Amino acid sequence: MDNKQHIPITEDLLAKYLAGEAGPEEAIAIDSWLEALPENRQTFDQLVKVWENATLSSYQKPDVDREWERFSQKQSPKKRTYTWLAVAASIVCLIAIYKLLPPGKRNPEIILLQAQKDISRDTLPDNSYVVMPPGSEITYPATFASRQIKLKGEGYFEVQPSSQSPFIVETDELKIQVLGTAFNVKTTPEQIIVQVNNGAVLVSSKTKTITLREGQGCIYNRASRTFDTVSIAENGRNNYAYATRELHFQHTSLSEVVRQVSKAYNVEIRLENEKTADCRISTTFENKSLSYVLDVITASLDLQYRTEGNVIYINGDECN
């Protein structure tokens, strides 16, 4: 039962997928398998129900026979095979094994990295790279064998590839899993935004898992607990320019340019003449200094800038 990429859909792979441990290529293979036949989707939906029942119940010795009977009663006789019994047993046992672990095994020593007033740039123990704007933080186990991170705020990650150990970023409601890629995660009280710069990631909530590839993003609505998948336009990459220092402007208003440059370089920029806010500019910056960026912007619009203390002021007449 192989998909286009010749990855066999086995009971172990489906159990990994439901546990949030499948890699991007494996998730893509399962997505193709689910789309191939309605029967595949029906079978998978029943397995999801078994998973949810196992995770929502308080722990007791797993009754695999009971869970399997509940699952198999909803299947046609042809599909009651030992293969799916193994999947159901694997899912229930995953929960049981975790809850039997001693507390010390569940909560190893935790490392905290915070970005306070400045943009933070750090290399993690596996040589992955993380950049955070002010007000953000990550925590992870000191051993880092699991390559699992918890994020508050916003972070841009360039992940060191490893076929043996997926890299996982958790927010309060989502899990983002990769093997090797670069992506940005931003959390707000209303939503969680994930954007993929290159590679592919899995994004999982409690009820759904989606795959994002290079140039794609998703917006998770906290209130409705739903995903919207979007394509990232070139200027959409400005959202994580604080990490890449790459800015793309196409007929963009000066007020928006100022907002994005301010975030990318963690500075305060003010327009002294409000009439210049709607001036338009088209240009691209790739890893340039702040002074270079300001020189180009102001020269292009026949404006001037000056620095007073920690604030940069842009002034001049309104644009034609």
UniProtKB/TrEMBL annotation:
Sequence ranges assigned to domain FecR protein in this UniProt record: 123-201
Keyword Membrane: yes
Pfam families recorded: FecR (PF04773), FecR_C (PF16344)
Protein name: Ferric-dicitrate binding protein FerR, regulates iron transport through sigma-19
Gene3D superfamilies, per database record: 2.60.120.1440, 3.55.50.30
Domain Protein FecR C-terminal: 247-314
Gene Ontology molecular function, alphabetical: sigma factor antagonist activity
Keywords, ordered alphabetically: Membrane, Transmembrane, Transmembrane helix
Lineage, top ranks: Bacteria, Pseudomonadati, Bacteroidota, Chitinophagia, Chitinophagales
